[in-house]
């Protein structure tokens, strides 16, 4: 009996030791699998975004320190790794908001980020759940408290920063305050005001071609070429929703166009499809009654996902669902179709057309109720030949010139009635 008791006790001891060892291994395994897998920094003249991507949701606390001004972010349940150590090296001297960024292991389970600031900022932090190729993300947006683009008379030359701040608070008004009244017919008694919208940007690359061409890059290049052409016209004024590699929520793009009292809104993209055989240029307008084709429905869905990919906080949802977008006027859609047809006809002279008529779907970025708005898919970036063309200055210039020709033809044919 004593031997049996001894053996029994020994078995219990070994089982207990094995259980402890397995628990220890599992904890090590969990710790090893829970870490930051990527870090990115997106500086711009409007705001700076810092993104930490992890394979699990990150919990954080923030506070500020002075002399010098710093934002401190403590991230719990995480260990410092080689990816996080690279974060400080991603800060450039040209960043308008961040002087330097330090990362360290504050305690056994907390990593501390210390962001030294160049100017007073308003921080906006939020987390994002996985979407597309992204895993869990912690987003740190740093908005300057003083708008550097405010002129001496107190008017903002570019309302983007104010609109972004309102959006993040969920306080973008349904009816934006009017700017200086613009009397007369566009292109006759006053300049035509055009808003160009290069799609995607910042955290959202858009479609990516086989040779790593990013949609956000080529459409910005095309928009800049078109901007330059429009500036040369004596009767036109042009604005851009973005003129750098920055993420702007879809509804803020629309709000900026309305704030600037735009006469036309042109969103520029480069499409992708599951088949590399798909090719050609397309033009789309808004539909409030469902998509006019399966292709338009698919494209609208992918483009409307931009906010989830680029990253917006839930605080902006009140604006996303705002009744402003239920007030789209039939007249504006009809104007959009006429304008889109003129642009499509001109683009058809420089590239194959995917479809010979303006298609329609529920594109969020086209939902300004009082501005004729179109979305131009310049070419399929997923098509090898068209990806090559999109990278060339020649094709980019051809597309820009075609859109300008469409603008001119639209107004020469009567265009819109006098506005505002």
Question: What is the 3D form?
Answer: globular
Count of helical segments? 11
Q: Largest sheet, if any?
A: 6 strands, mixed
- The share of residues in extended strands comes to 15-25%
Structural classification:
alpha/beta
Low-confidence regions: 16-33, 150-156, 177-181, 317-328
Q: Let me know the number of strands.
A: 14
Strand order of the largest sheet: 10-9-11-14-12-13
User: Element order, helices and strands?
Assistant: HEEEEHEEEEHEHEHEEHHHHEEHH
Whole-number radius of gyration? 26 Å
CA(first)-CA(last) distance = 102 Å
Give the fraction of residues assigned to helices: 25-40%
Average pLDDT works out at 85
Keywords:
single chain; 420 residues; alpha/beta; six-stranded mixed sheet; four-stranded antiparallel sheet; 14 strands; 33% helix; globular
Helices and strands, with pairings:
Blueprint: H1 2-33, E1 36-42, E2 48-54, E3 59-65, E4 70-76, H2 82-85, E5 98-107, E6 110-117, E7 121-128, E8 136-144, H3 160-169, E9 192-198, H4 215-231, E10 236-240, H5 250-259, E11 264-271, E12 282-286, H6 294-304, H7 306-310, H8 317-320, H9 330-347, E13 359-361, E14 373-380, H10 384-390, H11 393-412
Parallel strand pairs: 9-10, 9-11, 11-14, 12-13
Antiparallel strand pairs: 1-2, 2-8, 3-4, 4-6, 5-6, 7-8, 12-14
């Amino acid at each position: 009996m004593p031997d049996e008791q001894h053996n029994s006790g020994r078995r219990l001891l070994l089982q207990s030791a094995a259980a402890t060892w397995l628990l220890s291994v599992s904890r090590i395994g969990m710790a090893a699998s829970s870490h930051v897998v990527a870090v990115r920094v997106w500086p711009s003249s409007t705001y700076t975004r810092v993104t930490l991507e992890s394979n699990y949701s990150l919990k954080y606390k923030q506070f500020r320190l002075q002399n010098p001004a710093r934002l401190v972010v403590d991230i719990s349940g995480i260990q410092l790794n080689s990816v996080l150590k690279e974060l400080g090296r991603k800060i450039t001297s040209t960043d308008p908001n961040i002087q330097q960024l330090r990362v360290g292991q504050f305690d056994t389970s907390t990593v501390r980020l210390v962001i030294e600031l160049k100017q007073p900022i308003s921080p906006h932090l939020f987390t994002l759940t996985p979407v597309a190729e992204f895993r869990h993300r912690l987003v740190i947006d740093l908005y300057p408290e003083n708008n550097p683009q405010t002129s001496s008379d107190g008017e903002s030359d570019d309302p983007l920063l104010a609109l972004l701040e309102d959006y993040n608070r969920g306080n973008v008004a349904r009816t934006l305050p009017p700017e200086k009244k613009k009397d007369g017919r566009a292109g006759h008694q006053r300049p035509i005001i055009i808003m160009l919208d290069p799609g995607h940007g910042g955290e959202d690359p858009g479609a990516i071609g086989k040779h790593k061409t990013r949609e956000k890059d080529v459409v910005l290049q095309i928009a800049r070429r078109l901007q330059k052409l429009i500036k040369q016209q004596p009767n036109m004024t042009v604005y851009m929703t973005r003129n750098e590699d920055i993420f702007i929520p879809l509804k803020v793009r629309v709000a900026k166009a309305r704030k600037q009292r735009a006469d036309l809104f042109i969103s520029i993209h480069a499409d992708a499809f599951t088949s590399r055989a798909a090719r050609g240029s397309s033009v789309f307008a808004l539909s409030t009654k469902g998509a006019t084709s399966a292709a338009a429905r698919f494209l609208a869905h992918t483009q409307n996902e931009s906010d989830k990919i680029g990253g917006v906080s839930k605080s902006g949802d009140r604006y996303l669902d705002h009744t402003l977008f239920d007030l789209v006027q039939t007249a504006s859609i009809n104007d959009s179709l006429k304008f889109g047809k003129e642009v499509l006809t001109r683009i058809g002279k420089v590239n194959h057309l995917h479809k010979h008529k303006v298609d329609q779907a529920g594109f969020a970025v086209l939902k300004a109720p009082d501005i004729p708005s179109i979305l131009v898919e310049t070419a399929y970036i997923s098509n090898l030949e068209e990806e090559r063309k999109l990278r060339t200055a020649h094709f980019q210039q051809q597309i820009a010139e075609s859109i300008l020709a469409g603008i001119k033809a639209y107004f020469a044919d009567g265009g819109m009635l006098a506005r505002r």
